[in-house]
């Protein structure tokens, strides 16, 4: 349906039949069109395919010339294409970019928290007054 996001995979053209859905580039609009095959006929080394959209009254204005492979939908995500188009609009894209840059700037501006250093006990220097007094007391009668 219009507005869906479709993930296509390559399929051999000789396996296609009327009723199958394929995605082909339209020569008039230069868009990728995903429609159902109305007719398919071998033509030289390739195939001529006539497509018709499910909601369209008539077949597409042009026939599609294809080679050995075409694209066929593997996954269809309803409404995801319309959402993606809205997100890609310049106004939305600029706002998202400014928001992401602001978040990055805030993380750089926030001071890093550092753990407080633990005090280390200082040992008395060798030969200090305290050591001499302790030594004198130990040797005193």
Structure, described:
A hairpin with a 6-residue loop joins strand 2 (21-25) and strand 3 (32-43). It contains three helices and six strands; from the N terminus they run ββββββααα. It has a domain at 5-79: SH3 type barrels (Roll). It has 141 residues and is an alpha+beta fold. Strands 2-3-4-5 form a four-stranded antiparallel sheet, with no helix packed on it. A two-stranded antiparallel sheet has the order 1-6. The model has no long low-confidence stretch (mean pLDDT 84). The N and C termini lie far apart (106 Å). The protein has helices at 80-87, 90-109, 129-139, and strands spanning 5-12, 21-25, 32-43, 46-52, 64-66, 69-77.
Rg measurement, Å: 37 Å
Average predicted local confidence, pLDDT: 84
Shape: elongated
Helix content: 25-40%
CATH topology heading of the domain at 5-79:
SH3 type barrels
Across the major sheet, the strand order is 2-3-4-5
Based on secondary structure, the structural category is: alpha+beta
Number of helices: 3
Order of helices and strands: EEEEEEHHH
Mind describing the biggest β-sheet? 4 strands, antiparallel
- The N- to C-terminal Cα distance equals 106 Å
CATH top level of the domain at 5-79 is Mainly Beta
Report the sheet-strand fraction. 25-35%
What's the architecture of the domain at 5-79 in CATH terms? Roll
Poorly predicted runs of 5 or more residues: none
């Amino acid at each position: 349906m219009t507005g869906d996001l479709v993930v296509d995979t390559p399929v051999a053209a000789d396996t296609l039949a009327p009723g199958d859905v394929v995605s082909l580039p339209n020569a008039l609009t230069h868009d990728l069109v995903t429609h159902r095959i109305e007719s398919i006929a071998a033509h030289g080394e390739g195939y001529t395919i006539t497509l018709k959209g499910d909601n369209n009254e008539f077949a597409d204005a042009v026939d599609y010339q294809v080679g050995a492979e075409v694209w066929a939908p593997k996954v269809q995500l309803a409404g995801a294409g319309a959402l993606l188009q809205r997100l890609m609009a310049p106004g939305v894209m600029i706002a998202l970019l400014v928001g992401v840059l602001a978040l990055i700037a805030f993380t750089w501006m926030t001071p890093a928290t550092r753990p407080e250093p633990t005090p280390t006990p200082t040992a008395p220097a060798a030969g200090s007054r305290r050591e001499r007094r302790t030594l004198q007391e130990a040797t005193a009668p």
